[in-house]
TrEMBL record:
Its EC number is 4.1.1.5. It comes from freshwater metagenome. CDD domains: acetolactate_decarboxylase (cd17299). This is Alpha-acetolactate decarboxylase. Pathway: Polyol metabolism; (R,R)-butane-2,3-diol biosynthesis; (R,R)-butane-2,3-diol from pyruvate: step 2/3. Belongs to the alpha-acetolactate decarboxylase family.
Length: 261
């Protein structure tokens, strides 16, 4: 029997659901998620949820595909994959994901970024507009990115290596002067057992040819949209349990292997 960490349940109002329920009963200001970041770090690279099921529950989000096959970007109700081998491609509804989080994005707040911000300034801005109490926020930034540094991970073969080993062979790309969109989330520390605490952002260019997990960028002029999220519907694939609090990786361990933020 999986029990919820009370701090997590309080911080995110987590409800465990079956994968067929991810798209049921549309709810505003909620995120849906399959599996946990701790399970992903523990080599659970194959999930039971289809991209179609994720898209039924959210039109903006991120994650990866089965086999830890590249970076997943969900924007405007479409799922895109940035494979390490390239090129960026549209993901079909029957493909499966071992880790994804998405929301039916609603704009609660708009912030115009008039002149370019470096990455640290962007994170400060996101922090200023983060929820003060519980919950998390979903983030969308559209505009000009003078510099973008993204990465992707290679599809893994069984027996699966630890995430840190897979990430050690990641591919990184540097781009300049791209128009595009950043999608992502900011989760509170109490969510560390299921999510990457802090910011987790993915990028995709307007022409859908360049994408990945965002390591660093400069941005502006651009429009930042924020949704305050107060609920999480969490699906756990077979074999995945919520981690015991003593097994929860520290934020710094996660940053080391996940990068970005
Ligand atoms: Zn990522």
């Amino acid at each position: 029997m999986t029990t919820l960490d009370p701090a997590l349940a309080h911080a995110l109002n987590v409800r465990l659901v079956d994968h067929r329920q991810l798209g049921a009963e549309p709810a505003d200001h909620a995120v849906i998620q399959t599996s946990t970041i701790a399970a992903l770090l523990d080599t659970k690279y194959d999930g039971d949820v289809t991209i179609g099921e994720v898209l039924a529950g959210g039109d903006l989000g991120l994650g990866t595909l089965n086999g830890l096959d590249g970076e997943l970007i969900i924007v405007d109700g479409e799922a895109w994959q940035a494979p390490a081998e390239g090129p960026v491609r549209r993901v079909s509804a029957d493909e499966k994901t071992p880790f994804a989080v998405a929301t039916r994005f609603i704009t609660d707040e708009i912030v115009e970024i008039d002149s370019p911000l470096n990455h640290g300034e962007l994170l400060d801005l996101l922090e200023q507009h983060a929820p003060q109490q519980s919950g998390c926020d979903a983030i969308r930034i559209d505009g000009l990115f003078p510099a973008v540094h993204v990465r992707s991970v290679y599809r893994q073969e069984e027996p699966y290596p630890p995430f840190a080993d897979a990430a050690a062979h990641q591919v990184e790309w540097h781009y300049e002067a791209l128009r595009g969109t950043v999608v992502g989330f900011r989760f509170p520390h109490a969510a560390s057992s299921v999510e990457m605490a802090g910011h987790h952002l993915h990028f995709i260019s307007d022409d859908r040819t360049k994408a990945g997990h965002l390591l660093e960028c400069s941005v502006g002029p651009a429009t930042l949209r924020i949704e305050a999220v107060g609920e999480m519907r969490l699906e756990l694939p077979p074999g995945v349990e919520l981690p015991h609090p003593s097994e929860i990786p520290s934020d710094s361990q996660l940053r080391e292997v996940e990068g970005g933020g």
